[in-house]
Specification:
Helix 1 packs across helix 3, helix 5 packs across helix 6 and helix 7 packs parallel to helix 8. With 282 residues, the chain is an alpha/beta fold. It has ten helices and twelve strands. It folds into two domains: 128 residues, Quinolinate phosphoribosyl transferase, N-terminal domain (Aldehyde Oxidoreductase, domain 3), CATH 3.90.1170; 146 residues, TIM Barrel (Alpha-Beta Barrel). Strand 10, helix 9 and strand 11 form a beta-alpha-beta unit. It is elongated, with a radius of gyration of 23 Å. A six-stranded parallel sheet has the order 6-11-10-9-8-7.
Length: 282
């Protein structure tokens, strides 16, 4: 598993921003036309709550596409913590450009900072263990790479990106293939070298997955006692992951069983955008 890096996202960012601006501006920002075209202004973006910042490159792309003459001066970077009422960005340029880009820029920044903030909250809870917290494919359609990048800004890690970069053999795959061993063997033939993960629902299925040589084994809603026993039985043969309905109240106990990974759909699925605002001065 490899984390998404900002360097991998330049075309993704440009495309996302282009679509977002088209969606918002359409045939033209008629409200911005209330302001004379030559009027200059400055603005600042303020966060109203503590958060972990993510999405600065999306904001930069918004104003680069709208008006390359807009100047942005950040006081934070992705992954930084911001405090309530902190100014995180100063902008200078044409008032029309600042007004037109405001909502699209804030939408990207507040959403991705929300993902990063939740990820950091969860990562902090298990910092005393060796476990790594992983995201899932439960993302906003068309916005997966951005959300997965935001997860890393918050100190968590990326699981597979999609259906193409690793096998995840789940209950229905096992049933369709005729068993765990059959599914693993088929995976090795289809894409040699790709990681093979198997979801198990019991210790007997764990032993079957180990026999088949799975690289990663996911415990699906096993009890804490069975997880601890699974760690003992595994004895370092495969990497172990826990998944299924994990939340803030159950996270620490699961991490302390000794497993390697915990995947949490809520990092990207249960979104709460950060409260940000832009203030304009002319």
């Amino acid at each position: 598993m490899k984390n998404i890096e900002l360097a991998d996202l330049s075309s993704e960012i440009d495309d996302s921003v282009r679509r977002a601006l088209l969606e918002d501006i359409g045939s033209g920002d008629i409200s911005a036309q209330l302001v004379p075209a030559d009027k200059l202004a400055s603005a600042k973006i303020i966060t109203r709550e503590a958060c972990i910042i993510s999405g600065t490159s999306w904001v930069e792309a918004v104003f680069r596409q709208l008006d390359p003459l807009v100047i942005l001066n950040w006081s934070v970077a992705d992954g930084d913590r911001a405090e309530p009422n902190q100014t995180i960005l100063h902008l200078e340029g044409a008032a029309r450009s600042l007004l037109t880009g405001e909502r699209t820029a804030l939408n990207f920044l507040q959403l991705l900072s929300g993902v990063a903030t939740r990820s950091q909250l969860m990562a902090d809870k298990v910092a005393h263990t060796h476990v790594k917290l992983l995201d899932t494919r439960k993302t906003i359609p068309g916005f997966r790479l951005a959300q997965k990048y935001a997860v890393t800004c918050g100190g968590c890690h990326n699981h597979r990106i999609g259906l193409y970069d690793a096998f995840l053999i789940k209950e229905n795959h096992i049933a369709a293939c005729g068993g765990i061993l059959e599914a693993i063997n088929a995976a090795r033939l289809i894409a040699p070298g790709r990681p093979v993960e198997v979801e198990v629902e019991s210790l007997s299925e764990l032993q079957e997955a180990l026999k088949g040589g799975a690289d990663l084994i996911m415990f699906d809603e096993l009890s804490l006692a069975d997880m601890r026993e699974g760690v003992r039985l595994n004895n370092g043969q495969a990497r172990l992951e826990a998944s299924g309905g994990i939340n803030e109240s159950t996270l620490v106990a699961i991490a302390e069983t000794g497993i390697d990974y915990i995947s949490i759909g809520a990092l990207t699925k249960n979104l709460k955008a950060i409260d940000l605002s832009m203030r304009l001065s002319v």
